[in-house]
Amino acid sequence: MQLAGKRVLVTGGGGFFGSHVVERLQPMRCRNIAVPRRKEYDLREKSEIIRLFDDARPQVVIHMAGVVGGIGANRAHPGRFFFESAIMGIQLVEISRQFGIEKMVCIGTVCSYPKFTPVPFREEDLWAGYPEETNAPYGLAKKMMLVQIQAYAQEHNFPGIYLIPVNLYGPRDNFDPETSHVIPALIRKFVEAKKTHSEFVTIWGSGTATREFLYVEDAADAVIEATQKYDKQDPVNLGSGQEISIRDLALKISQMVDYDGRIEWDRTKPDGQPRRFLDTSRAFKEFGWRSQTPFDEGLAATIRWYLSQPTHAL
Known about the structure:
Blueprint: E1 7-11, H1 16-25, E2 32-34, H2 46-56, E3 60-63, H3 71-76, H4 78-99, E4 103-107, H5 136-156, E5 160-165, E6 167-169, H6 182-196, E7 200-204, E8 210-215, H7 216-229, E9 236-238, E10 243-245, H8 246-256, E11 262-266, H9 281-287, H10 295-308
Parallel strand pairs: 1-2, 1-3, 3-4, 4-5, 5-9, 6-8, 7-11
Antiparallel strand pairs: 8-10
């Protein structure tokens, strides 16, 4: 698919991940790039989605909107995370079908994988068990889009694809302590501890859980490549190929911000999924994508961006 001359709708295009995708679309000579804002269109409401489609007349839909957050936010609002993510996805796919769109790209989540998935996670293992409890409602809600586009492809020849990015990080990430994921949360903790000369920083869990992180600009490149080159209904992992423990991640960030206090681990709080590490061979085989940004380089860029904000500078 050539995106030049196409009308493209990016839900969630004003968010962290979505804004980087929109940036990559801008030089591609699309006829129009629609980025709906929540105050203009409430995507939980079917009538609002129809109004959006009437206004934008999209040919390509990249669905990135959702309710996102770390372990704490998922534990506090499991019902909201399930309902809002599910209802947006289900109605967007159905209305995309009704409007006869040429391509729909659905962004899933690594939270959909079973809690004890063999490492590295392969797409074939997606249904091999129940997700980790702290974010299972959100993970299952997003996974329903995969079921839907596969069912619609079978019944209606629906042109949908499904991508599964691992934990993302990078400039413009969400650093809100109530809803942020682990990297922005740790960056903020250590920067604030340095500013206030705190003797220690407390981090949830034991630090033994491992995660894989993908730089957001690499993930955005993957979305564009898949939109143009991938047409199968099989889900595709997007990852960096590097795994790190939360303990090692915390040490790395503390060193990068030059914090010299100690780290205390609150073992009364959950670790989340024990390990997350994806097999990304399908992405390279199907549309020639692999991540390009070394982890230390991406992490340093993320910290520089955070410190460049007036309210966070050291």
